[in-house]
Amino acid sequence: DGGITQSPKYLFRKEGQNVTLSCEQNLNHDAMYWYRQDPGQGLRLIYYSQIVNDFQKGDIAEGYSVSREKKESFPLTVTSAQKNPTAFYLCASRNRGQVYGYTFGSGTRLTVV
Amino acid sequence: RKEVEQDPGPFNVPEGATVAFNCTYSNSASQSFFWYRQDCRKEPKLLMSVYSSGNEDGRFTAQLNRASQYISLLIRDSKLSDSATYLCVVKALLRGGSEKLVFGKGTKLTVNP
Q1: What is the reported pLDDT for A96?
Q2: Portion of chain A with pLDDT greater than 70, in percent
Q3: What are the tens digits of pLDDT across the range A35-52?
Q4: Beta-carbon contacts of residue B2 (< 8 Å; ≥ 6 apart)
Q5: A-B interface: how many C-beta pairs under 8 angstroms?
Q6: Are the beta carbons of B100 and A33 separated by less than 8 Å?
Q7: What percent of chain A has pLDDT over 90?
Q8: Nearest-neighbour CA in chain A from B87: distance (Å)
Q9: Which residues pair with B48 in a beta bridge?
């Protein structure tokens, strides 16, 4: 079945480390997104990509970086510049041909230790 | 003003009760609206789209008032399995022709036996 795979499910990071969260989709979707969710909060957009080799900052991009070298993959790196990285990270992709067309991954829960 | 605002909740109701969630959005140009359901520590899942004429899916009814920029969700005959956080979501356009989903903070519902 087609879908989005995020890994790992749980990730622990030490202060000052960079970590990379994986997001892979086999839906042939062009657009991909990274959202962050904090407890009691809605999802906030970090980065998005409409096509391969192109990506744009969302609302809270500081301390994060992404790449889009392949259509299927949109990894997110949480850098040491991100001061409060502990959160639930969700990746989504979208079929541009449909009114709705969004699919979400099951998320990665990142904790700084 | 936040882009999407919801009742803060939480709502605690007995089984069989009718419960209503309200949401307002700030961008009058918004065209697409949704209700999502999110279970604890899981990704959000689309519950239903919201159409101008109002729409119903079983026990769930969604309404949209464009003049007031107001969205609602009504759950009738609530079940234990309806316990979750309900997210009001609005689609927003981004530069370059892309789009994103803007999420409210969510309203937590607990249905009690």
Answers
A1: 74
A2: 96
A3: 999 988 889 999 999 999
A4: B26
A5: 53
A6: yes
A7: 78
A8: 8
A9: B35
Cβ atoms < 10 Å from Cβ of A14: 9
- In terms of CA atoms, which chain B residue is nearest residue A49? B98
Q: What is the Cα–Cα distance from B91 to B103, expressed in whole angstroms?
A: 9
**How many whole angstroms separate alpha carbon B49 and alpha carbon A78?**
33
CB-closest option in B43, B46, B99 to A106: B43
Which amino acid, one-letter code, is at B56?
Answer: E
Q: What amino acid occupies position B63?
A: Q
Contact of B41 with chain A, judged by CB distance below 8 Å, is answered with yes
B2–chain A Cβ distance below 8 A for any pair: no
What are residue B82's phi and psi, to 5 degrees? -80, -10
The amino acid present at A111, given as its one-letter code, is T
Contact A45 B100 (CB under 8 A): yes
Per-residue pLDDT, A99: 65
Report residue A1's pLDDT band, with 50, 70 and 90 as the boundaries: low
CB atoms B105 and A48 under 8 Å: no
Which residues 6+ apart lie within 8 Å of A21 measured at CB?
A6, A7, A8, A11, A34, A75, A76, A77, A78, A89, A91, A108, A110
Distance from CA of B25 to the nearest CA of A (A): 14
Strands in B19-25's sheet, in edge-to-edge order, are B4-6, B19-25, B70-75, B60-65, B55-57
B98 and A42 within 8 Å at the Cβ level: the answer is: no
Positions of chain B with pLDDT lower than 70, given as ranges? none
